[in-house]
Amino acid sequence: STVANKLVYTAQIIPDRGSWLYFEYDAKDVLYVRINKRRKVPVTMLFRALGYKKQDIIKLFYPIQTIHVKKDKFLTEFNPNDFMDRIEYDIKDEKGKIVHQAGKRLTKKKAEQLIKDGLKWIEYPVEILLNRYLANPIIDKESGEVLFDSLTLLDESKLAKIKEQKSFDIANDLANGVDAAIINSFAQDGETLKLLKQSENIDDENDLAAIRIYKVMRPGEPVVKDAAKAFVNDLFFNPERYDLTKVGRMKMNHKLGLEVPEYVTVLTNEDIIKTAKYLIKVKNGKGHIDDRDHLGNRRIRSIGELLANELHLGLAKMQKAIRDKFTSLNADLDKVMPYDLINPKMITTTIIEFFTGGQLSQFMDQTNPLSEVTHKRRLSALGEGGLVKERAGFEVRDVHATHYGRICPVETPEGQNIGLINTLSTYAKVNELGFVEAPYKKVVNGKVTNEVVYLTATQEEGLFIAPASTKVDAKGNIVEEFVEARQDGETILARREEVQLIDLCSGMVVGVAASLIPFLEHDDANRALMGSNMQRQAVPLLTASAPIVGTGMEQIIARDAWEAVKARRGGVVEKVDNKSIFILGEDDKGPFIDHYTMEKNLRTNQNTNYIQHPIVKKGDIVKAGQIIADGPSMDQGELAIGKNALIAFMPWNGYNYEDAIVVSERIIREDTFTSVHIYEKEIEARELKDGIEEITKDIPNVKEEDVAHLDESGIAKIGTHIKPGMILVGKVSPKGEVKPTPEERLLRAIFGEKAGHVVNKSLYATASLEGVVVDVKIFTKKGYEKDDRAIKSYDKEKMALEKEHHDRLLMMDREEMLRVCALLSKAPLNSDQKIGDKNYKKGQTADISELEKINRFTLTTLIKAYSKEIQKEYDDLKNHFQNEKKKLKAEHDEKLEILEKDDILPSGVIKLVKVYIATKRKLKVGDKMAGRHGNKGIVSTIVPEVDMPYLPNGKSVDIALNPLGVPSRMNIGQILESHLGLIGLRLGDQIQEIFDRKQKDFLKELRAKMLEICSIPRLASEKEFIKSLSDEELLNYARDWSKGVKFATPVFEGVNIEEFSKLFEMAKIDMDGKTELYDGRTG
């Protein structure tokens, strides 16, 4: 900061818990200290309070220089370190001869030569000695009287008196990295201590300093010497009141070069002294000022740490409450029980408030798998203890050099929160201290090793890091002698032997969402930001399609999201249906069967439809971790948040002006962009002072046809098509007791008592709501009777649980039989036996296929034909499965118990009904559509398929985009993506042609065509893979390729010009990438 146009230096020690300590200079170069922003005191006052004497402080901060008096000359020992900068005076030896002139720099070589020539003593000029300070008191040897106290400013008269001494010490405030700040602080605190001596009647300056700090911190309170000392100790050295945490200790040690053990999380005297010393050094141009935006100085506070802090506050409140109760209790403490003192509500309230009212507490973004993954990887600088977006400056929002490989430079919101909310990079990790680490490969003597290391921004300081694009030969040696490397955020040219690390891969710079954008390197950063943000907003479609042009990250994101079902262990699919998958495998213990269930038609937080469907069939071999069931926005285990559409960049009668989008009617007809959304509507029946509200079909003043779709309980039936204004749940509420008018009395006489006493409070469908009722949930308070609909709902859920339990029991029996068969197939028989269709003699082993034919009852007699060891193993196996079945039964009973439990409802609510309505949304005019490159627009018109422009082969385009949307936005990636997509489509058509011809040797032709497509050098591994495929496997791959050959273009490693040229040639597309189109209306 600046005061009176002068730079003012400050240092802060900020603990996790405890008093903040500020060191600051003023305009007069006095060093002060503040505790918790209270009144400032000279820093020497704090040092004295910590127990340091005046002489000790001088020795800590200043080099002590001894001056000898010989023949009226002041001499000192020659020390080259005192002359590191340009010299202000001539260096003279003790005879007065000039050995080095003023204004010249004393080099190391010259200094060594002077010492070699015998220079030991040099003359200390009197003009420099004036205005220096004594380091130690000058005492008269005869009388013992103190002539001059330490830190006395020398002048001519004092020097004349001191000449009688043979030698004296001065505090060298002219030394490197030192100034007069501490001396000035002593001058300031001297007056204060004199006044305190008189008022407190205490001579010890350390005690007086402690009293002074106590008075500053607690003004107006009476103070005692011992209490003041204890107070100062508690401020910084008491673990109960002060905590730096492991991180604080690590940072303190790193910054100040200390070696204090990490378990010491309170301050030490050395910490405080070294901090003041470092600040003085910085002020004198020697140290480094901290960059608060450097990721070595910013850390992530995880959910656990934030919750722990809240719990600490809750426990502190509880402790105070318990102490207060103790003081208010009577003398009879023997009868007091813990529950009389402890009120757990303080803790539960703290936890509930943290999760419900916390600034960073949010519902998970479940729009699609990508939005969920990125939400979990989000970093925020806002929230409690963080920044306020209105006051956050440009520096904190800007991309910093240390973000490389740690924080995505692309993905961040566009509005007020830009740069304050970020995302972790793809391969970044957060260590136990909360610092973000980036992965690198080690480089030793110019050779790249396979050892991967994760480093924080602090750990990589000073290291030479090469980019992933560095040319490396087959053995891992860096090819070029000079490499463009990074060091401390600067790009430099380094020798290959100097390089210590290399980036793991090019894509490590960006986050998950940005890594899904093909040809990201050809897009402007602003448009890439929009593209990565809009991908998270893509709603799951009715039918998902994996992209023809991807980046290779699609499968990884799908695997890591919770939407997909992944195999826990490898094996063979034993049974699969719409709701469950059973996988048979084998481990060290023998065969096993794993069970997986599918979720259907669940509502997400964003009202999208969550549905899972199997992608494996019976007999398929699966590996551990493999996706066996797709979730929403997934296709065959790949992320599929959009559709592959044929796009024309051309104007179309002004309908695609200003980013508007022209769409073919075929897209709407084929439900290409149709999505399903599920909305939840709820209504409560309450207990009122005039009676209770009732969920019923009997609603006053409503026509019979308006309630025909409601069941007897007054709730819409499942499958009902809902339109705006329809009743979802019928509810009547009692009227207050008001004297009825003659007309009301007449109505009551005609229609009965009830009609006049209740009012219609039903739940109606809103104006925009149209769909089908897919589910209803009814919650009833304890003590109130459940209606028919609630009972039916309970019976349905119970039946589903019973069926699931039955299926799992059958599979467990099958697993048991397989394990027993595996056991018996390895052991010899003790007697002749007929097993299945075969006869076996004594000593032979039965085939597992024959053992599997026998039933459980035959098995109990057969087991006697085996040795006792085998019989014991069989008994152990039987007992194991009996225990497993008991566990399964206990799990089932627990689920039933939860189902049968009384519902917990808010006070006054006796019934709660939730109706779930599924809405099918087709693409319509006014809807927003977007690509992956930030190319967004609104659907302006839906054109009949015959009127859309068409290709020479007669195929009409799906979407017409404005070509002016490309050059000014500088997102050329969309053009390259379109070209590669068209190549994939044309190559797929060529494979489909081979299928259509169905010649005798078409399999051979198929293999040849697929190998030709893989002839690009970077697809060499794919080529080998296709060669190794069997005919059946090749057919499956070819069928997939016939819909469009899929390409993965990883970010910063995309398809290059040479590869594009070869692909254009193979796909038989003009080299300029342009295509002739015909007007659909005129031909």
What is shown here, in short?
Residues 440-503 form the DNA-directed RNA polymerase beta subunit external domain. 32% of the residues lie in helices and 20% in strands. With 1083 residues, it is an alpha+beta fold.
Describe the fold and architecture.
The chain has 1083 residues and is α+β, with helices and mostly antiparallel strands. 32% of the residues lie in helices and 20% in strands. A hairpin with a 2-residue loop joins strand 22 (482-487) and strand 23. Helix 25 runs parallel beside helix 29 (1057-1067). The longest helix is centred in the last third of the chain and has 37 residues, at 788-824. The mean pLDDT is 88.
Compile the SSE list and pairings:
Elements: E1 2-3, E2 6-7, E3 10-13, E4 21-25, E5 31-35, E6 41-42, H1 43-49, H2 54-61, E7 64-70, E8 73-77, E9 91-92, E10 98-100, H3 108-116, E11 121-123, H4 126-129, E12 133-134, E13 138-139, E14 146-148, H5 156-162, E15 167-171, H6 181-200, H7 205-217, H8 225-237, H9 245-256, H10 269-283, H11 303-328, H12 338-341, H13 345-357, H14 369-376, E16 378-380, H15 394-397, E17 421-423, E18 429-430, E19 436-444, E20 447-455, E21 465-466, E22 482-487, E23 490-495, E24 501-503, H16 525-535, E25 549-550, H17 554-560, E26 565-566, E27 571-576, E28 580-587, E29 590-597, E30 602-603, E31 609-610, E32 613-614, E33 621-622, E34 627-630, E35 634-635, E36 638-639, E37 647-649, E38 661-664, H18 665-669, E39 675-688, E40 691-692, E41 694-695, E42 721-722, E43 727-729, E44 731-734, H19 742-751, H20 753-757, E45 758-760, E46 763-764, E47 771-780, H21 788-824, E48 833-835, E49 838-840, H22 848-851, H23 856-862, H24 868-900, E50 909-921, E51 928-930, E52 936-943, E53 959-961, H25 973-997, H26 1002-1013, H27 1020-1028, ...
Parallel strand pairs: 21-24, 25-54, 37-53, 38-52
Antiparallel strand pairs: 1-2, 3-4, 4-5, 5-6, 7-8, 7-15, 8-11, 9-10, 12-15, 13-14, 16-17, 18-19, 19-20, 19-24, 22-23, 26-34, 27-28, 27-33, 28-29, 30-31, 32-34, 35-36, 38-53, 39-40, 39-50, 41-44, 42-47, 43-46, 44-45, 47-50, 48-49, 51-52
